[in-house]
């Protein structure tokens, strides 16, 4: 099977490509990635001899057309992915997430390739704290940020192309991922690399906000379950029952580092900060028989800490610039 992976030099995409090469000997993988600040070719280094890498944008109609013409399956990870960046400058989010997804859909329509579109639970907005409510595939879209609204728009484009043009696509909306190769701008790697440097973690506001954490390998095994056994046109929510407050994540990391549980700082909150995300993954578990492997969050975090300790040369070049940017917004 010829698989085109967009955004394959990013966090989840690179893990997906590595996992695919390891577990799917029949897959012939091509990566299309623009190598923005978030893309790093070295994340594919362990499988470089098994992957064709194309440096380019999903908004490049001719390039996308020629690559999709040679693919049986397109797995679409490429996106601008960071909420804080979308508040500072929404423009690239509109271009990549909306125009880029449109460009891919048109190519898939022309060539009849199967598409799996990767999206986020943030399209549903947020939930109140301290309730049993969870997102389901029927939850109405209600995105809060430029990031989540452009992801919501991209999902709606995919749904319309399925219905209007018969494109063979599926969609997944996943909760917060953690694991190796995540950019140091994101919450977990930012705090892990701060702790490695002896700097106190930075918690937005009170730290009561809840995210539903899933290991990146569990996200990617769910993506393959959907590609293999999912129903065309369907949306699957991916989550592993990992609800944890930001404060508890920081406290767990402090414990892993053997530091005092109060050794962190509260900093300026994110404007429009979503309170809580929680996924009901019943459809994925019952219809497709998927289950997560990383069910012990503390152990998964500790392994992630080990990875960042062992791979300083991967994250160090980006660290100072990310922190300088956060300092400007008091975070
Ligand atoms: P990331 O920012 O780490 O990686 C994004 C990748 O896309 C980078 O390699 C970047 O170079 C590439 N890219 C950006 N613009 C491009 C363009 N115009 N053309 C080609 N490539 C481009 O993001 P991530 O965290 O790996 O997220 C991947 C996908 O998963 C995104 O669609 C995101 O919305 C979704 N998602 C992420 C999470 C999470 O917790 N990180 C959770 C749910 C869904
Ligand atoms: O330094 C920090 N301190 C802090 O308290 C940072 C960077 C974040 N936070 C908080 C904000 C969020 O409540 O931690 C939580 C997680 O923050 P992010 O890593 O920025 O993730 P989030 O905004 O929840 O979005 C992530 O999950 C859904 C991904 O970045 C998205 O791409 C995905 O769609």
From TrEMBL:
It catalyses: dTDP-alpha-D-glucose = dTDP-4-dehydro-6-deoxy-alpha-D-glucose + H2O. It comes from the Bacteria. InterPro entries: dTDP_Gluc_deHydtase, NAD(P)-bd_dom, NAD(P)-bd_dom_sf. Its cofactor is NAD(+). Pfam families: GDP_Man_Dehyd. Keywords: Lyase, NAD. Its EC number is 4.2.1.46. Residues 4-298 form the NAD(P)-binding domain. One of its GO terms (molecular function) is dTDP-glucose 4,6-dehydratase activity. Belongs to the NAD(P)-dependent epimerase/dehydratase family. dTDP-glucose dehydratase subfamily. This is dTDP-glucose 4,6-dehydratase. It comes from Isoptericola luteus. The lineage of its organism: Bacteria, Bacillati, Actinomycetota, Actinomycetes, Micrococcales. The gene is rfbB.
